[in-house]
UniProtKB/TrEMBL annotation:
Alphabetized UniProt keyword annotations: Signal
Ranges in a coiled coil: none
Top-level taxon in the UniProt lineage: Bacteria
Pfam families linked to this entry: DUF192
Keyword Transferase: no
Protein name per the record: Uncharacterized membrane protein (UPF0127 family)
Record carries keyword Cytoplasm: no
Origin organism lineage: Bacteria, Pseudomonadati, Pseudomonadota, Alphaproteobacteria, Sphingomonadales
Organism: Sphingobium xenophagum
PANTHER family, per the entry: UPF0127 PROTEIN MJ1496
Signal sequence residues: 1-21
InterPro entries linked to this entry: DUF192, Saro_0823-like_sf
Length: 175
C-alpha cells in the first residue's frame, strides 16, 4: 500500500497539470513569410523583385522545389554556394517547370535555363563556379526579359532603404 500512495499522488499531479499548448500554425506561417529573402534582378527593362526561400542546408538543397505543385510569379528558391562552385541541378521529382538562373560571384547571370522539363534527370549547369542558383517559376525569366549578364542582388542590398533584417546580403559592386 505504501508504494501505491506515491504512485497515486504522481498520477494526480500529472492529471492536473495543464496540457501543452497546440502549436500556433499562424505563427509558423508568419515565421516562414518573415524568412523570405528579397532578391532583385536588374534587367534592361528595369528591376524585378522576388521574395524567395533559401535552401541553406545540404538537406534543403537536395530537396529544393521537389513535389511543389505551384510556384507564385514573384517567389522562388535561392541556393547559395559557399564557397562558390560549379553547380549541377536536375528536375527529378520536380512537378513544375522552372527557370534556373546561375549567378556569378560578381552578381551577373552566367547561365539561364528556362522552362526546365519536369522529372528530367538531365543535368543543368553553367559549367563555371557560381555564388548561387535561383529557381523561379518556368517562363518568368522570358516574360520579364531576364537574360545572361543581368545583375542580381539579395538581402538588404536588394532593397536599399527597406527594412530588411538579414545576415544574408549579396551586394556585388556595380560594373
Amino acid at each position: 500500500m505504501k508504494c501505491f500512495v506515491p504512485l497515486l499522488a504522481f498520477g494526480l499531479i500529472a492529471a492536473c497539470s495543464s496540457p501543452k499548448a497546440a502549436p500556433d500554425n499562424g505563427a509558423q506561417a508568419q515565421a516562414a513569410t518573415a524568412a523570405l529573402l528579397p532578391v532583385v534582378i536588374h534587367t534592361a527593362k528595369g528591376p524585378h523583385r522576388f521574395d524567395v526561400e533559401v535552401a541553406d542546408t545540404p538537406e534543403a538543397q537536395e530537396k529544393g522545389l521537389m513535389f511543389r505543385k505551384e510556384l507564385g510569379p514573384t517567389t522562388g528558391m535561392l541556393f547559395p554556394m559557399d564557397p562558390p562552385r560549379t553547380a549541377s541541378f536536375w528536375m527529378k521529382d520536380t512537378l513544375i517547370p522552372l527557370d534556373m538562373i546561375f549567378i556569378r560571384t560578381d552578381g551577373t547571370i552566367a547561365f539561364l535555363q528556362g522552362d526546365t522539363e519536369p522529372y528530367s534527370r538531365a543535368p543543368v549547369s553553367a559549367g563555371v563556379p557560381v555564388a548561387a542558383v535561383l529557381e523561379l517559376a518556368g517562363g518568368r525569366a522570358a516574360a520579364l526579359g531576364i537574360a545572361e549578364g543581368d545583375r542580381v542582388a539579395w538581402g538588404g542590398c536588394a532593397v536599399p532603404g527597406g527594412k530588411v533584417m538579414t545576415e544574408r546580403n549579396f551586394c556585388p559592386s556595380a560594373p
